[in-house]
Amino acid sequence: MKNLEVNAIENGIVIDHIPANALFKVMRILSLENITNRITFGTNLPSSRMGTKAIIKVSNMSLDKANLDKIAIFAPNAYVSHIQNYKVVAKHKIEVPDNFEGSIMCANPMCVTNKEVVRTKFQIINKVDLAFRSFYCEKITMLDNFEIREG
Amino acid sequence: MSNKHLVSIGDFTKEEILKIMELASFFEQNKSERLLQGKVIASLFFEPSTRTRLSFETAINRLGGRVIGFSDSGNTSVSKGETLHDTIKMVSGYADMIVMRHPVEGAARYASEVSMVPVVNAGDGSNQHPSQTLLDLYSIIKTQGTLQDRHIMMVGDLKYGRTVHSLIHAMSHFGVKFTFVAPEELSLPDEYKMYLKENSVEFTETTDFMEQINECDIIYMTRVQRERFSDLMEYERVKNTYILRSQMLKDTKDNLKILHPLPRVNEIDKDVDDSPKAYYFEQAANGVYARMAIITYLLGVK
Lengths: 151, 302
Ligand SMILES: [Zn+2]
What we know:
The complex is a heterodimer of chains A (151) and B (302). By secondary structure, chain A is mainly beta. Helix content of chain A is 14%, strand content 36%. Chain B folds into 2 domains: 9-129 and 287-299, Aspartate/ornithine carbamoyltransferase (Rossmann fold, 3-Layer(aba) Sandwich), CATH 3.40.50; 131-284, 3-Layer(aba) Sandwich (Rossmann fold). Residues 106, 108, 111, 113, 134, 136-137, 139 of chain A line the site of zinc ion.
């Protein structure tokens, strides 16, 4: 196995093949800023596939479907490995879901989700370029305009 | 809760659209059917729109129902800071249906999630106004005898005009052909062109009003508003290009009808009003029948 430049972990998850510039967005959308688990991460690491990439390792954590979907927003080509006793027990390619709820804001300032306490809901109408249609105002939010929403 | 709502025109299938056409025609023949006897309909206009409100309230009255509500949100609990959620929850406990207009986009969709009774969207900002679309469709079927295989020319502000976008969606069920006539700055957004391509709907785009005027069955006019232009020179240059005048109609098809969601400013010259092809005032009258159809269909009383 290649030296990953980031220490191996005993139990937890590894999120690999994150675009180098998306590291902190992925950390933020998964709320990793607020947990006490041990986290190691690196960015601008060499990648044969992507040029450069970022990687995040979190001890004693697992990710459910909702959290895997969140990763897809900023790192649609990432892989997530679940580690037990230093071994990879499961490895998932991230998949961009059909629908997405919460976590990001609708880019339309006149949308009800920006005016009242309403959780955003989107239909993903382009999974390659990441275009999200708001379930409420029906306007489209593109990847460049994604803003993470707290709570 | 399996209430049926009308928030976007996409909420109705082709079959449901045709059902509404049939009901609207029935109500045009039978203007006072007391199908809403004993029912209370809430008419909540969080922003004023006299035209739409009067049309809905006439429809409810003709059906024998009673109306509660407000015609703008000043002087109500809303102006005291009540959330949309709470207003809708409360009113849906009083009424059998909510008709609402709101300046916030997506407000009606959200209300439909909160409400215990059917919600009809009477306009949510620049987003949707499905009862307008259904009255447009009713005007087309009434004047053409069918919705099928029509050639529709849409003129003016195709970028921001929500009635244009909804009509494009609805007519795509019916083997339509479109000609879009607009200044470059107000041309139809790519999103809708993609939709048309995906659904194999034939369309052409032009800046020349006269190019296909003699081939179309419907001219759908919209207002070209000064405030929509980022470049006022461009506005000055095109403002008179998209005005329909009676001499432009001389070689048009006999079955041609001119529609406009109203109010118009100057985009249809007054001399067109006397033409038998002018249909915009009748179109507005059709709104009452279309709304009677929508209300009775959603309440399951017809
Ligand atoms: Zn929205």
